[in-house]
Amino acid sequence: MSSLPNRPRILVVTPEITYLPDGMGNLAQRMSAKAGGLADVSASLVKALYDQGADVHVALPNYRRMFHLDVASVFKNEYEKVSRTLPEQRIHLAEDRVFYHRSSVYGRENHLIALAFQREVINHTIPQVRPDLIHCNDWMTGLIPAVARRHGIPCLFTVHNIHSEHLTLSKIEDRGIDAADFWKHLYFDRTPWSYEESRSSNPVDLLTSGIFAAAHVNTVSPTFLHEIISGYHSFVPDSIRNELRGKMHAGCATGILNAPDAAYEPATDCSLPATFDSSSHAAAKRANKVALQERLGLRVDPNAPLLFWPSRLDPVQKGCQLLTDILYRIVADYADIDLQVAVIANGPFQKHFHEIVAFHNLHENVAIRDFDEELSHLGYAASDFTFMPSFFEPCGLPQMIAPKYGSLTIAHDTGGLHDTVEHMNLAENRGNGFLFQIFDSAGLRWAVDEAIRFFLLPDEVRNPQIARIMDESSSRFNHETTAAAYIKQYEQMLQVQVTV
Fold first, then answer.
1. CB 403, CB 388: distance < 8 Å
2. d(Cα 79, Cα 38) in Å, to the nearest integer?
3. What's the pLDDT score for residue 76?
4. Residue 166, SS3?
5. How far is Cα 82 from Cα 64, in angstroms, rounded to an integer?
6. Rounded to the nearest 10 degrees, how much is the dihedral formed by the CA atoms of 82, 88, 91, 93?
7. Above 50 in pLDDT, residue 498?
8. pTM score, two decimals?
9. 3, 114, 163, 346: least surrounded by Cβ within 10 Å?
10. Are 87 and 49 in contact (CB under 8 A)?
11. Dist CA 215 CA 252 (whole Å)
12. Between vectors from CA 118 to CA 38 and to CA 108, what angle results, nearest 5°?
């Protein structure tokens, strides 16, 4: 390792990303392919690394429809600029027909997308970039750590979500990947006796392969890692749990918290009628609350406590069923202070919210709207509290965004929520939200009651606490902190100091 430069070349391999920083190439700001939080995290990490001067390269599929590339403009009207920037190109677009006409990252052809992407990275990008370290993300990059291990390249594998695909070596090779070269570093559904014996009948687990072959693995929160290896979540396959446990005991697994996008900054957020910081939050949040109430058709009342739901309405993970269980009751019990709820999210459980609102005629106190980026920003800025009662949470971002906007999180104590939300303790001047321990509607109701008790405190008590929480959140939940943690991990894996 002593021969490595002190500014190693890092290749980030990701199936989705929301943007890339200026300077990485002439097409950087024309790209966006997002299915979930991985896209935001990839974008923020790459930007932070690039802004700090790291020699970072990015490999991603060429989703032509989603990227909205104006090829004629780029290659005709900006020919000289393109000619100057292409030799320094740091964006490596995997080319395959399966990417070109897609309007979403994932779909029925997930395995074809994953194999086509990895084929291009393995056959072309890695030989071209010659990275000192490869950073892969989730199951769609699960073969690459095995290739990296075969060629002696340190690889960090980040587990964002517990989802995998299982494919035989024959299917992998049919897509142009020479799996025979690295098959010994893959994780199979059963122990392989030989390459020939396993080629057509012993599927490869892509996510577990990434964990198995990587030099180091990280989940996107420390607590979620410990929950997995301790068997806390029954939905996590034994293969993943056992491999992560082995990595943990070998000192090769950590948890690194994600960070919200820098666009979530109330002092500069162009989505807000009234921008604000910790010193001006009180009046501005009232103005934003009125603006949101008017847009959603809620009763206009700047003194009403407003609770915001920002996450997808998924009852398997996000706990939205707990809120429907208590929705009518909390509105009725706090009718004297006009409690209001704003749900700005899509998902299969949305219909149940609509049915409750219609049945109880709660239209002036409860609003249900499809997700809208601008409206969601306003939701954080207008609300007093933000719901995150997830059953499990690998990391979560809303609970880090909300306190930056002075909206305190009501959360189930699990995973990334445990690492980012601390129950309010006025006596010790600590805390940034309200945590409940038992995942049921009674637990959520208790946390809501705690939040309203805080809301009813005198302004001279409540407002300084909100200001403190906003300042602490801004300094803690940001790209620089997350990038610093990854850079530290890169340094440890490379056994050199990464100069940025």
1. no
2. 33
3. 38
4. strand
5. 18
6. 70
7. no
8. 0.88
9. 3
10. no
11. 7
12. 70
Strands 204-205 and 253-255 come out as unpaired
Q: Any residues with CB less than 8 A from the CB of 426 and at least 6 apart, and which? A: 461, 465
Contact in structure between 158 and 33 (CB atoms under 8 Å): no
CA 329 → CA 211, 333, 349, 362, 378, distances in Å?
A: 45, 6, 19, 11, 26
Determine the residue type at 500: V
Using an 8 Å Cβ cutoff, are 18 and 58 in contact? no
Place of tokens 């208590």: 326
Neighbours of 21 (CB within 10 A): 17
Token pair, residue 496, equals: 């050199």
Which DSSP string corresponds to 363-418?
A: TTTEEEE---HHHHHHHHHH-SEEEE--S--SS-SHHHHHHHTT-EEEEES-HHHH
Model confidence pLDDT, tens digit, residues 326-346: 999 999 999 999 999 999 999
d(CA 19, CA 60): 12
Quote the CA–CA distance of 139 and 137 in Å, as a whole number. Answer: 7
Residue with the two structure tokens 């800025």: 381
Work out the number of other CB atoms within 10 angstroms of the CB of residue 414.
Answer: 26
Stretch (H or E) spanning 343: strand 340-344
CA atoms within 13 A on the CB side of 350: 15
Query: Across all residues in the chain, what is the average pLDDT?
Result: 88
Residues 347 and 312: beta-carbon distance below 8 Å: yes
Cα radius of gyration (the chain): 24
How large is the angle between the packed helices 459-476 and 441-455, nearest 10 degrees? 120
Please tell me the distance from the alpha carbon of residue 120 to that of residue 93, in angstroms, as a whole number: 9
- Would you state the structure tokens that stand for residue 81, as one six-digit string? 């600029």
What tokens were used for 291?
A: 């603006």
Closest CA to 388 of 327, 434, 456, 342: 434
Residues in the chain: 500
**In what order do the strands lie in the sheet containing 408-412?**
366-369, 340-344, 306-309, 385-388, 408-412, 433-436
At 447-490, the pLDDT tens digits run 999 999 999 999 999 999 999 999 999 999 988 888 889 888 99
In sequence order, the 6+-apart residues with CB closer than 8 A to the CB of 2 are none
